[in-house]
Amino acid sequence: MRSRTALFCLLIAVATNNAQTLAEDQQGPVRITPQVSRVDASFRGLAVRNEREAWVTGSQGTVIRTSDAGRTWRRIVVPDSDQLDFRDVEVLPAGTVVLMGAGSGRMSRVLRSTDSGATWRTVLVNGKPEGFFDGLAFADGKRGVLFGDPVGGRLDIHLTDDGGATWRQLPPKQRPALKKGEYGFAASGTSVAIDDRNIWVATGGSVARVLHSPDAGATWTAYETPVRSGNESSGIFSIAFVTANAAVVIGGDYAQPKEDRDNVAWSVDGGKTWMAAPSVRMPHKACVRSLGQGRLLTCGRTGVAFSKDGGRSWVSVTTAGYFTLAVDGRTGTGFLAGSDGRVARFELNGAQRD
Q1: CATH code at 120?
Q2: Low-confidence ranges of the chain (pLDDT < 50)
């Protein structure tokens, strides 16, 4: 069995120190403008409310927020959270924000604010020593899903119907069984997706699979993917839907980030069958998001890449490292975040806006 604590520390410690982060990238399909966060945390969680407001979260209980498109960032105080690593954040309507802490045992927890971060309440704490939260997602302002590493050999799944105020864990028989050495990655909070009654969870480790429930967690089916797997540092790190049926998964081996084969796969049947992109040479990535109209952006410590054809081909935007990204679906603009307090804003260039 792998040591989650050791892997967790390694993920925090790995950083890309690249001079490109100090300059604005004006070329290519996407323009990236680095910004100043004034903190030195390792960021893994990112959510946007619109093109001007974004929330970024990470190590040492760090939460920052911008409401002016990143010109300034303000630190949000979350009491008694210095030892927590906020690997995911979701911004919901009416000032509601949901944070997910990742870590072994009780370090995995969910906090919630209903006043844009002025006050916080802990709404869920993992009670199992082997538990480890990996990511959460919301279909709307009410219905959400949280998943974590296997407990008793089965995926840990919690659901909410009230915007994260309360959570219910699926009973053991209703949670999908995982193979030995299979689990999730808390790399960017984006290896889980939810839409209507559908839930998708991407895994890694011994195998790289997509687990799908069409009925809000009542039943599950596991689908194999060709993404690199077979050891504790490899598998799927992120999943994104381009349309209702077209999806992309991305990942690789974070211990060998320059390995650029078998790190991307795509589906056109809602995640049931997955095809490799044999011509794609993509080093390890931790997050992928849809920008609409078949366009995708992915990032990791190995840089940022852009696709305009649903993930079948990619072009490098920058080799500067970022761990996570989020996009405002109405404008196609968004934010990136990574190690050492690194944040940036991105927007589509030229013809890519059409």
Answers
A1: 2.130.10.10
A2: 1-25
pTM of the model: 0.92
3-state helix, strand, coil in the chain (%, to 5): 10, 40, 50
φ/ψ bin of 38: left (φ > 0), alpha (ψ from -120 to 50), beta (otherwise): left
What is the bridge-based pairing of β-strands 209-213 and 30-35? Answer: unpaired
> Please, what is the end-to-end C-alpha distance for the chain in angstroms?
49
Report the distance separating Cα 159 and Cα 148, nearest Å. 12
Q: How is 25-55 classified by DSSP, letter by letter? A: B-SSSEEEEEE--S--PPEEEEEESSSS-EE
- On whether residue 310 sits in a domain, the answer given is yes
pLDDT of residue 20: 40
Question: What pLDDT is stored for residue 349 in this prediction?
Answer: 87
Separation of CA 42 from chain center: 14
| Distance, CA of 191 to CA of 210 (rounded, Å) | 9
| 22 is a domain residue | no
Strand order across the 204-205 sheet: 182-183, 204-205, 234-241, 247-253, 264-267, 275-276
Per-residue pLDDT, 27: 61
Residue burial 24-44, b: 16+ Cβ < 10 Å; e: rest: ebeebbbbbbbbebebebbbb
Tell me if 172 sits within 8 A of 152, measured CB to CB: yes
Residue 225, token pair as written in the block: 């993917």
Q: pLDDT at position 281, please? A: 94
User: In the block, which residue shows the tokens 């809000």?
Assistant: 216
Q: What is the CB neighbour count within 10 angstroms for residue 227?
A: 26
Print the domain residue range for 183.
4-15+33-353
Q: In whole angstroms, what is the distance from residue 131 CA to residue 146 CA?
A: 12
Query: Do the beta carbons of residue 287 and residue 299 sit within 8 Å?
Result: yes
